[in-house]
Please model this.
Amino acid sequence: MKYLSPLLPFIAGWLLLMFTASFGELALVNGAVQMLLFALVVCLPAWKTGRMSYVDIGWPWGLTVIGIITWLYSEGDPTRVAIVSIAYIFAGSRMGLGAIKLLTSGHLDTELPRYEFQKKRWLKQGKNNTVLAMQVEAILQGVANAAFLAFPAFIIAANPSPEISPFEIIAIVIWLSSFAMESVADMQKLAFLKKMKAQGIKNTVCNVGLWRYSRHPNYFAEWMVWNALVIAAIPAWLALFDTEALHINILLGLGLVFASRIMYTTLVTYTGAVPAEYYSVQKRPSYRQYQEETNMFFPGPVKLNANTESSNTLNTKI
Model:
């Protein structure tokens, strides 16, 4: 049971969607395609190779699937359906193409560090059957795409009103600014790494630009992208009180909140910040000081002290 219990909330979310009047067909088709996708792209390769890294291929293409199915099957305002569908297709395909590049370049021939960290967690939890744990994990990722990560898309696309809500305007601003922040953070880190490589400097800490105010600004920005989708779903969720039973719609609202919570947990503790820092501390001697000076996730002011000032002077010279 300890292997299967993490699946239960996600299965419950998928079943909730299937038993609604508004999303039953969507949920059934999406769930079936997600399971097929993860069986072929994640479960089978993980079983053959003993590596979990194939999740990085299955999960983003699963988001693309959500976008396509939302576009094909939703019956809300056509413009709104197109916008939210494109948002999912764009985000999923962007990450999915990056994952395929990793695969073809050989980077997935060894396990990615975040999944090595996950295996350490399983052993600590007494999950000694790594093969079974990997298969459950792969299925969990697929069911997450079938359930809570599809909630914002399905609910937004169910809104028949052609009028734009203030919530949707706020959501668009947050989505665009968060996507810009994520892109800038990625470009700043890439430029920093190229500069260090050119100067022959290894295992240094990127604390320039946005990385001065958060140790993981890209993860924070990605979380805010999902929060924008949740906010955009509020008007459509309120409209569903006219078509769904009260208790069902309350559960759908909780599912939207849970989508945000899932992404926060994933990006901070599951496969995001915590696993990354576990290895960064080992590789980069100055990373512990960086942890003391800079917030892990939420951007905030640099915690200045004598060590910080000397470190900043060094980085300026570099």
Q: What stands out?
A: The mean pLDDT is 93. Residues 166-198 form the longest helix (33 residues). Residues 80 and 157 are 6 Å apart (CA to CA).
